Structure formats: C-alpha cells, structure tokens
Amino acid sequence: IYRLREGLGIVTNNVAEYKAVILGLRFALKQGISQIRIQGDSKL
C-alpha cells in the first residue's frame, strides 16, 4: 500500500478519482511493479 498526493485545484469527484488512478499507475510503472489491482465504486 502506497500513499500519493497531487494538487488538482477545483475539480469534480470523478475527475479526482480518475486522476488518482492515473497517478497510481504512473507510480507503479516507475517502481517496476508488474501487477496491480484497482478497485473503485464509480458508476460512470
């Protein structure tokens, strides 16, 4: 489990969730992590 943080300004909760996924995936790639599981509750 990792904790990451990035400023987003004023955005919707959906944009914040999608950006968090992208941030996490980029971090995983940089760390050489080959398996990752992403879970969310968005209905979009």
Q: Which percent band covers the strand fraction?
A: under 5%
Overall pLDDT metric: 87
Number of strands: 0
Looking at the chains present, what oligomeric state does this protein adopt?
single chain
Tell me, what's the shape?
globular
Taking the sheet with the most strands, its summary is: none
**End-to-end separation:** 25 Å
Q: How many domain regions? A: 1
GO molecular function: nucleic acid binding; RNA-DNA hybrid ribonuclease activity
Pfam families: RVT_3
Organism: Nymphaea colorata (pocket water lily)
Protein name: RNase H type-1 domain-containing protein
Feature tags:
single chain, 44 residues, mainly alpha, 43% helix, 0% strand
What is the fold's blueprint, element by element?
Blueprint: H1 13-31
Can you offer a commentary on this structure?
By secondary structure, the protein is mostly helical. The protein has one domain (1-44). It has one helix at residues 13-31. The model has no long low-confidence stretch (mean pLDDT 87).
